[in-house]
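Cont'd.
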Amino acid sequence: MLTAAENELLTQTGPGTPVGELLRRYWHAVAPAADLTREPVRPVRLLGEDLTLFRTENGGFGLIGDRCAHRAISLAYGIPQANGLRCAYHGWTYDPDGHVVDMPFEAACLPLKIKAYPVEQLGGLLFAYLGPPPAPLLPRWDLLVRDDMNKTITPTLLPCNWLQCMDNSLDPAHFEHLHGVYGNYVMKKLGKPPMLHPGRHVKIDFEVFEYGIYKRRLLEGQAEDTPDWTVGHPILFPNILAQGNSDRMSFQFRVPVDDTHTMDCIVDAVRPKDGEPLWDTPVVRDDPLMYDETGRILATYINRQDEMAWVGQGSITDRTIEHLVTSDKGILLYRRVLQENVERVQRGEDPLGVVRDAAKNFPMIQIRRGSQYEGFRGGVPEGQWGGFQTAVVSA
Amino acid sequence: MLTAAENELLTQTGPGTPVGELLRRYWHAVAPAADLTREPVRPVRLLGEDLTLFRTENGGFGLIGDRCAHRAISLAYGIPQANGLRCAYHGWTYDPDGHVVDMPFEAACLPLKIKAYPVEQLGGLLFAYLGPPPAPLLPRWDLLVRDDMNKTITPTLLPCNWLQCMDNSLDPAHFEHLHGVYGNYVMKKLGKPPMLHPGRHVKIDFEVFEYGIYKRRLLEGQAEDTPDWTVGHPILFPNILAQGNSDRMSFQFRVPVDDTHTMDCIVDAVRPKDGEPLWDTPVVRDDPLMYDETGRILATYINRQDEMAWVGQGSITDRTIEHLVTSDKGILLYRRVLQENVERVQRGEDPLGVVRDAAKNFPMIQIRRGSQYEGFRGGVPEGQWGGFQTAVVSA
Amino acid sequence: MLTAAENELLTQTGPGTPVGELLRRYWHAVAPAADLTREPVRPVRLLGEDLTLFRTENGGFGLIGDRCAHRAISLAYGIPQANGLRCAYHGWTYDPDGHVVDMPFEAACLPLKIKAYPVEQLGGLLFAYLGPPPAPLLPRWDLLVRDDMNKTITPTLLPCNWLQCMDNSLDPAHFEHLHGVYGNYVMKKLGKPPMLHPGRHVKIDFEVFEYGIYKRRLLEGQAEDTPDWTVGHPILFPNILAQGNSDRMSFQFRVPVDDTHTMDCIVDAVRPKDGEPLWDTPVVRDDPLMYDETGRILATYINRQDEMAWVGQGSITDRTIEHLVTSDKGILLYRRVLQENVERVQRGEDPLGVVRDAAKNFPMIQIRRGSQYEGFRGGVPEGQWGGFQTAVVSA
């Protein structure tokens, strides 16, 4: 249970807020690169800042403020140039550093500059860094770098604070109930067989490592040498959940749009089986939240059930009324790590997991994953495990 | 004309407000029971409180707070159990008294309790009592108890304060104009014959009785022994309008959802004519407000015209600009009764119409009704009286 | 660049605000008259005031407050009478001066009056005057009076402050870029040829005259005797843009609905060519803003591109971050004229362009127009000039 002030501190993401400043020390997924191929200029909102993401005619990327310095029209109407973005209204042109480099009607170009942030592309995603220079390296996580897997990117906008997603990831026990018992209840109402065996948790554990926190679980009937318990899978600090194994893995980037919205950007990667083709490029899927007549989210598969739980806690959940119990010990650990790293940033140090050593970053950062969810698979019909979704492939 | 402070006092319904506390001394219709058969867990809002209404596997009902005590997820995602409602996230289970009776992952169940209110079923409706114990008896109004009538329940959410509905019910004269003149204007625009004879009111009168206020009217051409004048029909204090006669009657429950929303729950009951079947169960109809291109409510029948007038007065109507005249004397009486009963509650007494005497309540409370609207029927084509509606039967 | 206080002063339109009081010295277009033929009672909002516009059974017009003096129901539900508007609820009737002239249930009609403003019809439009009496003459602008032209009226509600429209009209240079470069970019994305030659501006100039401000431009390749430079075209103070020539002309009335909404009411008039019929009455078109998946306005023709720019500056644009340059000198002039006329009104004088001399007003006020946009037409395919629209004719 937190005080209202503590809850506010942990959930504010804007410039100058303690956690907002911590989050600004990391690169954040801002959009699938393919979205910019389809439409090269897009308004985006990230950490409470309104910005314009664009792809130049040369294929470079830029992320600059949302308003022209001239008369404040939205730069989302801008026209991509070889060297930047030209405003629709009077043609003032911005390079990716935010400098005005052309004022068509003026004798000379005034030395104006607007907000600009670096953008890098990796694994089909564009990442942005909104913190102070020098920017750290964009972490070359294995899933993003590996070229032997077929990847699917599903970004979903959620009307809730990012920390609710993280509370969930540090809480292994919910799996048994939210996906087991509730998931099976949803299936039953739809006339389908169970989607999960709600295996009982015997114990859970957590460990801080170089890039975040490993979580581990042991279920009834599992031997202690199961990778679920010996390895587990990590939360890459501060806001990425990594799951799977070397043949099938996923990342969930929980990107704070602002204090009350989060972009849950899920990347699934699967190694093609023998004979299956390797895709040229990641597929982008559109799978927005859907609601029933009473305003409840329809949640027919694991990820959507998690998103349902986060949104179901409210816009910014009221942690002054929560009652944390033994199953929440990972949440307490995460909050402590969050607080410690807020203080590190306030002391001018790099926080947990920031990468500046190219030797560690190349060719990629391998993440051990051992979570197979095997204890949840027993007795579930083939093809029904994890429920079902009906998303639309849009790019 | 009221002061702003007086208007605020009369229209606030939340916990701790004077009228809110008065309203909490009565049972309120919260949903048709059939809605819970279709979907057993529903988020509801009543008197400004967000709650979760549910039907257990055993067919009992509960009304508890909207947030799990664990980590504040909405209990609207809960799963009905034999003994209560199980939270979707981690399985904490609440009995209908709000006690946590199961915490699946914990060694022992902590002694936690959330808000809970009693629920009773009568006449196809669920009623809730949000006041202090001991709860009074749920009044066994004749329309709810009688089993020789076919009943239709139409709940409609209105974006306005409940008191606007009551102002209307204490104001007989509006009938002549809103349903007569305006109703006929609507019919004319639709190419239909008149829906009502706009009979002129000669006099109106009101009388406080054990359960509320009787209103009576005499129209031009009517003899003084007409039941419209000798009996009239009552407003059951504080928020029910009762109409009709012993063969065809209706109730309108104007349930305050919050200060700016009211659920107008209309129950129509008709005694089947010779040979007509008696229905097994009330029919629930869905008939939401519809709007034209200018934002005005489409009002083609009597009840909808009343709802139009209430909503047309604004979210909370500004009574500082009203000019009450002789036709509004019932409104002044109602406000006085409201104020007197606010004071009764503040003195610790039961307010008007609260039922605690089982002898009076069983087998039912008979309500005399004598209003036939006969003066409004003259010369109106058969089948056109009262306009027409096109609602959808949903259960 | 303005201070926040200066920007607030220039953009506030409500009663009692400095610019709001200035705007109240002019007649404003409030609706096409044909709209009232179709539906004779309409809620309208003008200069931040909620009002009811109606057409009596006799064909007269009225503009009165939005609430009945009795119990505050919306008068938008009123029923037109020969002498005014009858309230739907109890039949209180208002004449066009706002006096209550009938109270059906009362022995005598109380001497009540609500807000009322004069309305006049000209050229297919209804105009209202919200200022103090005596009202000036409704200006008989040539386009409104001439009966040898076919007229089209397109009112579009915009979610932005009116002053952004005026900034645009005093800024000739935007034409080259917004309609030339950006317009051609939009065409290219749609697979269409260019809609405009983006002719370079050599010089721009402005001149205050009896009714407002003339603006003039000279483009590369144009001789100094071009009417674009010798005549130009005017902004009729404070909020009308007049364009065209004697065979084809248009007005844009930028009517402040409130501080954050503007009705852009465009009237196009074309003299029929030999053999073409002359229409009986203006055509009213419905052409609301449309948005793409990223929330940007679809702008495929000149007027819509202007509207896009105004809305693209935000609800009330932040002029504290603007950087005005040489191309903005007309904007500075307009703001000075606006300020001067605010002061005139504060001294009790008539502001610029108010018409009280019938000799000047009859038969009409001829406006010289010399802007042909000829410098923008070179090399553009016939039929493609100015882009394309797909609006719906609704009356």
